[in-house]
């Protein structure tokens, strides 16, 4: 998956990099929770941490041309997330999310 992310980013940069453009990647606060035991799966936060790392790498490598940013939304209550929010380890985190 990371190899394909890299290919997509490189293709986009080849096509749009010289123009006044912005790359906005979608990450998650879950990428910051990696190793905390507060997520159900190790793979989701690892993938989000990879997106954040790629974003930081591109932002510094490209020196602001084009701009590269990531949006990292918090938890959104959905049927898939509700069982995780019911876990005792998630109660304090869930209480802090508006």
Structure write-up:
This protein is mainly alpha-helical and 98 residues long. It has 4 helices and 2 strands; from the N terminus they run αβαβαα. The protein has helices spanning 2-16, 43-61, 82-85, 91-96; strands at residues 22-26, 67-71. It has a two-stranded parallel ribbon with strand order 1-2. Helix 2 (43-61) links the parallel strand 1 and strand 2 (67-71). The longest helix is centred in the middle third of the chain and has 19 residues, at 43-61. The model has no long low-confidence stretch (mean pLDDT 78).
Number of DSSP-assigned strands: 2
Radius of gyration: 16 Å
Measured between the Cα atoms of the first and last residue, the distance is 32 Å
Number of helices: 4
- Structural classification: mainly alpha
């Amino acid at each position: 998956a990371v190899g394909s992310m890299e290919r997509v980013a490189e293709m986009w940069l080849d096509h749009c990099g010289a123009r006044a453009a912005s790359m906005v990647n979608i990450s998650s606060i879950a990428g910051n929770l990696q190793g905390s035991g507060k997520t159900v799966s190790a793979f989701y936060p690892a993938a989000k941490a990879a997106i954040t790392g790629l974003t930081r790498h591109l932002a510094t490598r490209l020196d602001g041309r084009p701009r590269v940013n990531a949006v990292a939304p918090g938890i959104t209550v959905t049927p898939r997330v509700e069982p995780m929010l019911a876990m005792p380890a998630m109660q304090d985190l869930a209480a802090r999310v508006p």
